[in-house]
Amino acid sequence: MITEKIPIQTNEDLFVHAYETAFPKVASFVKKMGGSFEEAKDIFQDALVIYYEKRSDPEKPGQHDPSNYIKGIARHLWYKRYRENKNQTSLSNLPDLKAQEEELQVSENLLRFVELSGKKCLELLRAFYYDKLNMKTIAGKFGFSGERSATTQKFKCLEKVRDTLKERSLTKEDFYD
User: Fold this and answer.
1) Angle at which helices 11-32 and 37-55 cross, to 10°
2) At the N or C end, where does the chain have fewer CB atoms within 10 A?
3) What does DSSP assign to residue 2?
4) What is the pTM of this model?
5) How many CA atoms are closer than 13 Å to the CA of 119, on its beta-carbon side?
6) Predicted local confidence at residue 98, as pLDDT
7) pLDDT value for 35
8) What was the pLDDT predicted at 84?
9) Residues 16, 21, 23, CA angle at the centre, nearest 5°?
10) Hey, what's the torsion of the CAs at 160, 161, 163, 166, to 10 degrees?
11) What is the rounded CA–CA span in Å between residue 37 and residue 27?
């Protein structure tokens, strides 16, 4: 084990020595990892408390270089914080819930009109727009003679939906409740 380079007699000596030797190393590490000065101070404080608790544990005798030991604890704490923050999403990063609700309402209203065009049209449009199948695959799945026939049928289905909307004289605003 490595012995301490300067004699640390009191807790005050320990803290002064840690701030002088370990904090610059911890701050440099946190900065290199994309953290801020405030985060470096938080991590260092936590590491210092953990080091102090371990140092005063009578079952863990031995002398370690406080600077390196605190830096090691700080690295562990930083990686732990990084993993936890990576799995969390800030509320400011979430899309506007009202916009999501409106989009869902529009989708539901539009789906009702697509359903009016018939089951086969609904399935064909779903295969193309939702399942992202190409026309060759759609032609085989629905029994059309080729891609061109499938494209024509898709166009006819879209026309049925448009005609239904026109027939009911609906505008874009009618999709919003």
Assistant:
1) 140
2) N
3) P
4) 0.44
5) 0
6) 62
7) 86
8) 75
9) 85
10) 170
11) 7
Q: CA–CA distance from 26 to each of 6, 33, 77, 79, 157 (Å)?
A: 20, 11, 11, 13, 65
Residue 1, number of CB atoms within 10 A of its CB: 7
Of 92, 110, 152, 105, the C-alpha closest to 128 is 152
What whole-number distance in Å separates Cα of residue 149 and Cα of residue 135? 9
> Could you give the CA distance from residue 44 to residue 128 in angstroms, rounded to a whole number?
56
Q: What does the alpha-carbon distance between residue 71 and residue 26 come to, in Å, rounded to a whole number?
A: 6
Q: What is the dihedral of CA 45, 51, 53, 54, to 10 degrees?
A: 160
User: In the predicted model, what is the mean pLDDT of residues 125-147?
Assistant: 90
Contacts of 164 (CB under 8 A, 6+ apart): 113, 116, 117
- Cα–Cα nearest to 114, from 124, 104, 102, 103: 124
Q: For the chain, state the CA radius of gyration.
A: 33
Q: Which two tokens stand for residue 64?
A: 């370690």
Coil, helix or strand for 106? helix
Q: Which tokens go with 9?
A: 């007699």
Spatial distance between the Cα atoms of 24 and 94, rounded to a whole number of angstroms:
36
